[in-house]
Structures
1.
Amino acid sequence: MEIKKGIAVSPGISIAKSLIIDSEDYLIPRRSIDTSQRMHEIRRVRNAFRNAIEELTRLEAAQDQTSSKIKDIFAVHMRFLHDRSLRKKITDLVQSELVTSEYAVSNTLRDIASHFTKVKDAYISERAADIYDIERRLLKHLLGKKREDVAHLTEEVVIVARELSPIQTAGFNRTFVKGIASDAGGRTSHAAIVARSLGIPAVVALEDLTALVSGGDTVIVDGNRGIVIVNPDEQTTEQYREYSREFEELEHKLDTIRGKPAETRDGVKITLLGNIEFQEEAEVVLEKGGDGIGLYRTEFLYLNTDTEPTEQEQYEAYSKTLEVFGDRPVVIRTLDLGADKYTQSKRFVPEPNPFLGLRSIRFCLQNLMMFKTQLRAILRASVLGHAKIMFPLITNRHELMQAKMILHDVMEDLADESIDYNRDIHVGIMIETPSAALTAHSLARDVDFFSIGTNDLTQYTLAVDRGNELVSTLYSPVDPAVLRLIRTVIQDAHKSQIDLSVCGEMASEPECVMLLLGMGVRTFSLAPPMLPEIKQVIRSVTIEDCNKVARKVLSMSNERHISSYLRDAARKILPEAF
Amino acid sequence: MNLDKQYIGTKAGKETLEKVVHEMEVEIKNSDGLHMRPAMQFVDIANKFDSEITVSNAQTNVDGKSIMQISMLAATYGSKLKIRAEGPDAQEAINALRELVEEKHFDEPMPGR
């Protein structure tokens, strides 16, 4: 039995056999196999070589008029794949050390590569890159099988991975994927957000978990306490079965408040909306008693396929969600791509600093055809329900005016074609950069609403990558610097009498919700599964309590003191929620 | 250039003539050394022969038919390698490999020319 502590990112408890997904970009951890699996692993090595050779042959044939340099690269790779002594080195490692074929391939080729990097001659040492290429090609074939396994599951599993992408996570079948545990990641990494939306228990930042687990081991994921247990003994398993039952009861209890209003004890009505990306999540919002959608992410349309989605495909996706919600609001955020693997991998040269690069609204303003297609689809769907448009990552007034101008162009086009759309559609922006927060008073003149995206606002204000476990402890939305910006935005929205909501992770943390209520926020948008819990929080507090908390916190200058003060305050006011 | 000819295992009788061993020392003459493309040319030629071919530098002996092993010699310009061929076509193998390394220098430029 092995117990690992990580960060709990999605609540719930699961007990199931592990399925390991590795990524060829990362170091494959050393994992042992049983003596009886030796022949199987050796066969897998042979198959990987065979498949890699086939793939390379195909690629080579598909290249017409290639330069002789590229031909040489293909030829060299081919020689390596046909090299019996290389293959033998790998299968010998499987035999003698009883390790998985993935590990044997990775270890052997990295050994060779490091041999090259040590050579002083630059021309030869650069050849290490070829060896890494060959490693990736072989791993792709070894890991490809497991990726297919994930798509065709027939039994319940816990997914164990070094790191998961949001797309991988979104593709998980909720019936069989019962839990997620990963080495990397933080509370606000995108995969964590997706896991939470789908209601799959997840623990991240487990550092070397992948090295401790072999495929098929029994794993407990405790998404409430942030603990993962590998091969638990009987007593522990029994204890966790009990926890799991209790948790389900609590969930059930929370579900009973679904029909009750989100109102504070002193009678102030609060609007609770859901953050969604996928159609399935829209249903979860309704199940959990949400008042609408405060953040409809549209990236999935672009990430699930290699080609850009057509206007009709987008129109259909938006229509479905709008129809489900009727006259309740659905805030559709325009494309927020960039700074992620997907756009970067499509680029010829990756951006050196993608988070400060061409992402989000900037990307849209430079890809007008694509942007206009999305706006047309939203506008056409706008007659079917209560749609609003939201632009992400606005950093200055000029960008906002440009985006609005393009929206008007699209409206005129539609009018010319006599296509119906909602002429009074509300247009708002995400406030998620310090520059937008600091100029909120001027931005407020040209929009109908603000939505504070606390994740990016925190990340850009504190200059911390929320997914980097080396610095993720510095990331805190209740840092005094972030809170000052949030206060400015709230005050400016109130002065201009425009709507304001908070749609970052902060809106789903009970202690932060108290603080935000005290700072004047009346609309929250959060991950759908968290809706009942936050409604419970709202129904347990008075605005007066919250005002006191906010006054106190805004007078404090130390993030740690603020965090612990908020925890204490929440414990006093909301005993049941903790 | 150093050309040896040895006969081994004379006592066995019949097979003696096939157990021919040839050895020769060659020098890398192209400026970029024995990087990937030359290594590929080397093993391609070595693989045309039935003889076992080993290549050695001061530290190690490697299989002349394996691109992994040959490229790992990381022989730079001016390094000297000993090629040893053992088998029925040892002589031809040695000649072909010498031609590639020293005369054609892998069809690559030599320094200062």
2.
Amino acid sequence: MGLINNDVSHFYLFNDKYLTKCLHLYVKSYTINQNKMVAEKLSQEEESKHMKKRIKSILAVGVLLTLTIALGGCAGDKASDSSQIIVGIPQDLEDSLDPHVAVAAGTKEVLFNIYEGLVKPDLDGNLVPAVASEYAVSEDGKTYTFTLREGIKFHNGNPVTVEDIKYSIEKCADTSAGEPLVEAYAAITAVNCIDDKTVEIVLSEENTDFMAYMMTAIIPADNENPDTNPIGTGPYMYVSRSPQENFVVKRFDEYWGEPASIENIIFKVCANADTIVMDLKGGSIDMYARLTSAQVDELGDSFHIYEGTMNLVQALYLNNATKPFDDSRVRQAMCYAVNQQEIFDLTFDGKGTEIGSAMFPAFEKYYTEELKDIYNQDIDKAKALMKEAGYEDGFSMTITVPSNYQPHIDTAQVLVEQLKAINIDATIELVEWSSWLSDVYANRNYQSTIIGVDAAELTARALLDRYVSDADNNFTNFANEEYDTLFDRVIVTTNEEEQVEIYKQMEEILAKDAAAVYIQDMVQFVALNNKFEGYEFYPLYVQDISRIREVK
Amino acid sequence: MRYVVKKIGILLLTLLLVSFLAFLAFQIIPGDPAVKMLGTQATPEKLSALREQMGLDRPMLFRYAVWLKDFVLGDMGTSYSYNMTVGSMLSGKLPITLTLTFLAFIMIVVIAIPFGIYTAKHKDRKLSKVLNAVNQIMMSIPPFFIGILFTYFFGLVLRWFIPGGYISYEMSVIRFIGYLIFPAIAIAIPKAAMTTKLLKDIILEQTKLDYVRTAYSRGNRTNGVLYHHVLKNAMIPVVTFLGMTLADIVAGSIIIEQVFSIPGLGRLLITSISNRDYPVVQAIIVCIAFIVIMINFIVDIVYRILDPRVRGQ
């Protein structure tokens, strides 16, 4: 057929430029063919052939036209422009862009690039001055004095003033709506602006961890909508967002510190975990964190792979208030039955950092490595303990797992098999994240669950305070008098060495009393397209894009 | 006239029922926006304080009535997650879903009708038999699977498009439509296959009827009978089927959006349900219900135009 032959040779188009040329050709060749047909004498049979040809040619034109638009137009959004990086994020920033209100870890790790506090964490977890250029603590430990950094500006160009610092701290300490946004701020009695460059925060009682809370973001006092219009002092500033699609920021050129290397960041929402590998390989995203080893294996050579940990305490958390988990012997038996290395081998490609208590190695100061060896797998001891507790024949239990966290689901499956050795018949119940939050976490209506708990701040307290018997966030219902006593002591201890010692004792209690079946700090992989380099891990759940640069 | 009024009445009643059921569903499932917003910082006091602030502690019927009143007056509410007006969020996403639906529909029509006619007319030819077999296979493959195959084959192997590389219509309309072509084809294939089979079967059925024999004996040729008589009758059930298909595509696009990472209404609906973002979910459900009912309404009208026997009623 004349129509198709004509066009095959003109079919190599990958650019909008050729579109009009192509359309021209189609119209021309179609009309030529049409004219040819009309000029012929038509018999009845030729008439039907004519009809057929017509349908076929319409179809052909249609298909070719479609493919033209498809090929010419759908090159897709490639992450290839200079000085731009597209970072994939698993969920959109759905709670709030106000750094004091946002609670989701996924939101905070992105906002880390936009906001800074008086101090900010460095790669080792130490606090370095940010909005404040220096700080000092009084002898009695109750007064903190900060010097505002000279010349520091907000993203809207306005200079940061001591009023903004006072506003930000007071906003988080405000108790008029119930509890303060930052719990530790309940101890603040006053925030005073001494002069244009100095702010003083006065506490009602000493708190050696207090500096860690000074990472609270400093925002302008005159910003009326911090939850939709983020203005901070960080290396990147907010540009725009499209719900469920992306979140766009660009480099803040008047940043006080070393400016970021890459100019534009698009945080692209990759809602579907299964397509992430395809998106990376196809080039529609350049970077993605928290990949599994299976996903990494599929990626190939065009990516830098960085291996780190998730900074989470993953465990089979048992509801200590329900039978049979109210008996510590049962909990200990389960700890003896579980083999962490086998979990790593079966589900995480052999990788994982075993932990024995509610602390992970990134917190070097407080981490006690020996705790993980307290419960090396010993089925006989486990059975003996179960018998002693009266459960020789075992029991059945439910493990509630949030369905959006594949690592926890995989771990649960291995645990079900391992617990069979001591006659425990466990079934896995998958629930939606919101259901998990309300049923398990808020209402504590569960038997056991697998989840990873992170440290909201860089303090041992952030990981350990939830085991105090009357703590609001004690979703495991753990109750141990000795633990409570130690906790009351440690929060008033001023001597750092003594503090570390007490925290370590608390961890030991958690391990010996088997508050939960502690498993691991999971391995995580970050994939970065070879066009870029420079990703570095923090001991916190953050993504610092300002350190990433293009490979020259 | 009465017919139209009756139809509009049913439309409104259906929308009311659908929105009420959606509202009811949220009361039954565990979790609410307060729990989701506070996440792991939730404590019983914070939860009740936030619920009071958001008005979630009021009785359900009261809240539904308030929502209904606002909705009817044009205020669709504000999203809990994004603090944007629901109207602005929907108006951003609607063109995407509508374009996808429209493209898929055109493809179904363009593929199914010629193939249907061909396989009916030349049912004894080998090509027809091959097409019938291919058709049968295509009917049974779910659209999302075709989508995954496309993504792998056309996206990664042939590199005809970049998987996940959705381009907003605000940036480039041509490239926006271009990216949607493959998802539209993925949706279209199973439905086109079904329509082809339907059309073929109806045409063949019609040719057995008396009026066709009469037409032939009167001297009409094959094509004349086919195009002037049989096709018109065959179109009626096909149009009805296409109408249902159109409504089905709107719902099916939700799944395809996941495969191709298209940020349309579907993805917004799914995440809003997860986030218990009531205003957004209610608005989208009412919106989709409205589209489906409107489509049925239009199909009804087309039906009346095509079939004079119905007009009299």
